[in-house]
Amino acid sequence: MAGLDDDFILVDGVEKVFDVRKKTGFLRRERREVRAVDGISFSVARGEMVGYIGPNGAGKSTTIKMLTGILTPSGGRLRVAGIEPARERTRLARRIGVVFGQRTTLWWDLPLIDSYRLMHRMYRIPDARFRANLDRCVELLDLGGLLDVPVRQLSLGQRMRGDIAAALLHDPEVLYLDEPTIGLDVVSKAKVRGFLRDLNAESGTTVLLTTHDLQDIEQLCRRVMVIDHGRLMYDGALAGLHEVGESERTLVVDLARELPEVSVAGARVVRVEGPRQWLAFPASASAAPLVTELAASYPVVDLSVREPDIEAVIAQMYADRSAALG
Ligand SMILES: Nc1ncnc2c1ncn2[C@@H]1O[C@H](COP(=O)(O)OP(=O)(O)OP(=O)(O)O)[C@@H](O)[C@H]1O
Fold first, then answer.
1. Carries keyword ATP-binding (predicted)?
2. Probe residue for ligand 1, chosen from 61, 208, 314 as the CB with the greatest number of ligand atoms within 8 Å
């Protein structure tokens, strides 16, 4: 039987149904059910860092809100660090940290340090621990020069780093991150990712990361879960996403001159630009026979194989699913 460390976050057949009422006439109201989360099961082991991705409206935020206890599930069973979130929200709050990229938990008009001092009291963090955590965050998140700046004057990247620090001052064992790199420039993204990687490796903090930026996932998570229409469509290694759906690789061929579309068995031309042609072939097939056949029949100057990028694979997954649903 799996222990608490294996099921540190446990989601078992969880559902969330919203009752939406819409006015459709003078006295008429229509009731509609929105199944935001439709029977999801997964568990996250202590110390794991897992990506949670899916298109807009898939049910990601609803899942996170249930995991923090803000929302009560309509069905199923949830446990975080052995605690049932909706029943013991305050007790759970001491064990988890939450960062919503699109919103701040900091006090807008106060200098950053004042927000941290308020959290120190709110969470009743022992003084020594507060100081040690603050020093560490200030150093690693580069907040030194920003502590006396009112939050509203911080750039988005600075504010995000400030928010991440705020979520970590009470030493949470679990960190939920909802779009932590949204709107950040390349340098800020790299800083945030580096920090999260070290935090997970060194402190063993369990991290559930929601993002639209697949580079976050590629750089941080070995495991990824994909949710769509409230259902879990994939849960596994990042590398395995490539095998989901009928994904394709691309052979890029440079010919000696412009030619009509080449013809080889097992591949199809998907694009032509001057002497360069792009051929799609199944990701599971070997490129070797294609290369041999091309080289034998055409004046090939150069060749390269492009792996499917994760975004294309996911787009393909959704397309396959829509087609299957008709
Ligand atoms: N309070 C609510 N009342 C009614 N419907 C809701 C409520 N909250 C969310 N929904 C609906 O539930 C579904 C899932 O929403 P959710 O916010 O969880 O998606 P998401 O995956 O986080 O999307 P995004 O990436 O856009 O944030 C959507 O159809 C949304 O409109």
1. yes
2. 61
pLDDT tens digits, residue range 21-75? 877 777 777 888 889 999 999 999 999 999 998 877 889 999 999 999 999 999 9
Tell me how far apart the alpha carbons of residues 168 and 175 are, in angstroms, rounded to a whole number.
8
Which residue lies with its CA nearest to atom 2 of ligand 1? 18
CA of 162 to the centre of ligand 1 (A): 26
Ligand 1 cavity residues, CB under 6 Å = 18, 20, 34, 36, 54, 56-62
CA of 108 to the centre of ligand 1 (A): 26
Query: Contact 180/157 with Cβ under 8 angstroms?
Result: no
Complex ipTM, two decimals?
0.96
Ligand 1 atom closest to the Cα of residue 227 is 21
What residue spans of the chain are helical by DSSP H?
Answer: 60-68, 89-93, 112-122, 127-140, 156-168, 186-203, 214-220, 288-297, 310-325
In the reported structure, the alpha carbon of residue 217 is separated from the centroid of ligand 1 by a whole-number distance in angstroms of 22
- The pLDDT value given to residue 312: 67
DSSP for residue 124: T
pLDDT by residue (tens digit) across 186-235? 888 898 899 999 999 998 999 999 988 888 888 999 999 988 888 898 89
Q: Please tell me the pTM assigned to this model.
A: 0.77
